[in-house]
Amino acid sequence: MNFQFKDNWAETLQRFDAWFHNKPHDRPLMHICVSRKEHNRLPVSRLPEELFANEADMYLNTDKQFSRIFNYYSQDVKPIAEAFPQFSMNLGAGSMALYLGSEPIFAPDTLWFKPFMENYDQALKYDPNNIWWQKHLEILRRQVELTKDTDIVCCIPDIVENLDVLSAIRDPQACCFDLYDHPEGVKTALDDITKLYMVYYDAMHDIVKRSDGSSAYTAFSIIGSGKTAKLQCDFAAMMSPEHFDEFIVPTLESQCNQLNNTIFHLDGPECFPHVDSLMAIKNLGGLQWTPGARNPRAGDESWFPMYQKVKDAEKGLWIGLVDYQPDEAVAVADRLVRQFGYKGFFFIFPEMEPEQGEQLLIKAEREWNR
What architecture is domain 9-367? Predict the structure, then answer.
């Protein structure tokens, strides 16, 4: 039996493609999942959910993870608007570190990497036989096999790039000094990482891309025609604008030129000094904003100057509203649309009741289109 968890695939892809490339569309992009009540659960029993044997099993056992994903979409929530059923299997945020030679440290809530790069005489090369690279490819192939009778999308894992990978394999503190003491070594390593990113990305994309040519990236619920990815540089919180422009912007430009749909993950106000440089990257599609702990939530007026920069650059702006109650989230989105206009926004709403989701769609179509 084929299980279709989403009804409006063609429209969803059209809206994402318009959002990534600043093309006209009739309302903001919206990620909405509504709870499944008894009458709209799919006619299938919940799959058995086995306990994970340990932390490593949680990251590596594709079958156990699939049972949870399948049950979530068949029994718990229905994706509407631009939400879509998705299945990610990440080996941490920045799995390229493993492919390059790091060893994993499995923890209940994340996966850490053991630094191994002692100096810049160590060339970073593609090793097709790396155990973690082969394991991740095996996981992806199993994901595709498990989801073949559903419309659940298998996502490209969180490979990550630039100094976020280098600091994982070298050590963050060492990298801070290296920007001053070994700038040419850093640039060479970053060039290698940037080239290798597409080697790893293309191999994974070939496995998980959908029959219509679209692909989804694990972070931030994004999908688009062709090659889609989230980019980042969390290390930028410790960099001057001059160093960011010198070391990071060229790597991001290279990635954006080789991908079809891109969004940059901006993590915390410490990264605000780099927004102008990011907005100047021609082929960057949008900005995803994470306020960080102890800061005002997304949508707060304190972030309006940064939002305006993104709007002025005519890039997409991803706003996560999951920390609000549903009614509060709708009110925040309404204020943002009235302040900045609807174009370019991608709102991630908290899970809500079906009636709330339908009313939100009606409101967006009637009021958030000018």
Answer: Alpha-Beta Barrel (3.20)
Going by the DSSP 8-state scheme, the letter that residue 152 receives in this structure is P
Residue 364 burial (CB count, 10 A): 23
Confidence check: pLDDT of 1 > 70: no
Q: At what angle do helices 183-208 and 162-170 cross, to 10 degrees?
A: 110
Ranges of each domain in the chain: 9-367
Show the beta-strand stretches assigned E in the chain.
29-35, 77-81, 86-87, 104-106, 111-113, 153-154, 214-217, 222-225, 228-232, 261-267, 286-290, 316-320, 345-348
Helix (H, G, I), strand (E, B) or coil at 334: helix
Cα 297 from Cα 328, distance rounded (Å): 12
Residue 190: per-residue pLDDT:
98
Q: How confident is the model at residue 109 (pLDDT cuts 50, 70, 90)?
A: confident
Please give the model's pTM, rounded to 2 decimal places.
0.96
Cα 358 from Cα 25, distance rounded (Å): 19
Structure tokens at 211: 């029959």
Residue 197 predicted with pLDDT over 90: yes
